[in-house]
Design a protein that fits this description.
mainly beta
């Protein structure tokens, strides 16, 4: 019987909070009351959960939009509070949680009924987070602070920079340290960077991610259809005739392509998936895209040191959407939609609207 059915049949029955630290590595098992799985449990037989979680010591998550009209959200988490009487896990081998290396470890929080009724695989996972700090006071137990993995996404920057030492003798010193842009979608007039002054070779997008095509090249807006040679393996082209110093070279580019199908990434959903899977170590199965997110062709150009979070904010704002980490560690990207008049909760104008205020930055 899973935990949901157990609650329906016996709502006042015994309930347990089970916390697993580092479930994919060397797990530590904690509980709100002494709990041990049965020898016959199919997923986790004969495992003892140490009764260490203090009363009201279970994390809770609260989330709110950071911007009313689109972008990311802000989540606040409560800590896991452990009793002062016991801070060492007694199952398997003793582990002192005041000194154990647990920073950044994944944490799964489950609800269960008695072990003879609810097996471990039938427990309900209510929250998945990561440990980021801990604190303790003598005689008052240990507090483990939990958060989602947004902090990791906040700190990841997808763009790389040109380094002259790696680019060859003919690389212009003026371009040393310049951002290697990433072109997503089709761009008619994207700026290009000179990478070899001897051969007049230019780069259109970071070569870590091959583009679909360099359609044509422009010199001060003049089409050079027959005046360049493509090098799609390196996202580059070489001009047949050297430009003068005051001429600006741009290109029509079909941007980064899918590494499997070879098709150009064209939609907001594909851009979001590309950024998260390539840079933030998020598996595609952990990305949830709302059904109403537009599927029309889109464009996005990364030309500075913005983080993955900043990129997702901009993509969400562009479609009046939002993105956030769910309680179960999924990255959710969806539109902000008006509630239906026929379903769901309805705002009571007299009670709520007086508390709503905002500042419009742009029209």
């Amino acid at each position: 019987m899973d935990f949901g059915d157990y609650i329906k049949q016996n709502p006042t029955g015994k309930k347990y909070v089970l916390v697993t630290i580092d479930p994919d590595g060397s797990p530590l098992y904690l509980s709100s009351a002494r709990f041990q799985t049965l020898p016959s449990d199919p997923d986790l037989p004969n495992k003892t959960f140490s009764s260490m979680i203090d009363e009201d010591g279970v994390p809770r998550m609260n989330r709110q939009l950071r911007d009313m009209w689109g972008g990311g959200s802000v989540a606040s988490w409560g800590p896991v509070s452990l009793t002062s009487k016991l801070y060492r896990r007694m199952s398997d081998s003793e582990v002192n949680l005041s000194t154990a290396e647990i920073y950044g470890k994944k944490v799964e929080i489950r609800l269960s009924g008695p072990n003879e009724i609810t097996t471990f695989d039938e427990t309900t996972v209510t929250l998945i987070g990561y440990l980021n700090s801990r604190e303790a006071t003598v005689g008052q137990g240990i507090t483990l602070h939990v958060s989602d993995r947004k902090s990791r996404i906040d700190n990841v920057v997808p763009a790389a920079r040109f380094e002259a030492d790696d680019m060859g003798a003919n690389f212009p010193s003026s371009n040393d340290g310049k951002i290697r842009q990433i072109v997503l979608g089709k761009w008619n007039n994207v700026p290009c960077t000179l990478v070899d002054s001897n051969t007049d070779t230019y780069e259109v997008s970071d070569p870590r991610f091959p583009v679909k095509d360099i359609v044509t090249v422009y010199n001060n807006g003049v089409d050079l259809s027959d005046g360049f040679t493509k090098d799609l393996a390196n996202n580059r082209f070489t001009l047949s005739v050297p430009p003068s110093s005051n001429e600006v070279i741009t290109a029509e580019v079909e941007g980064v392509k899918d590494s499997v199908s070879g098709d150009m990434l064209t939609t907001v959903e594909e851009f979001v998936t590309f950024l998260l899977t390539e840079f933030a170590e998020v598996s595609e199965s952990d990305i949830v895209i709302g059904d109403s997110v537009p599927t029309a062709d889109a464009q996005y150009l990364i030309t500075d040191d913005r983080s993955i979070s900043n990129c997702l904010d901009e993509l969400a704002s562009g479609v009046i959407g939002t993105w956030f980490l769910s309680a179960l560690d999924k990255v959710v990207f969806k539109l902000i939609e008006a509630p239906s008049a026929s379903v769901g909760a309805k705002l009571k104008q007299r009670h709520y609207l007086e508390d709503v205020s905002w500042q419009e930055v742009e029209d």
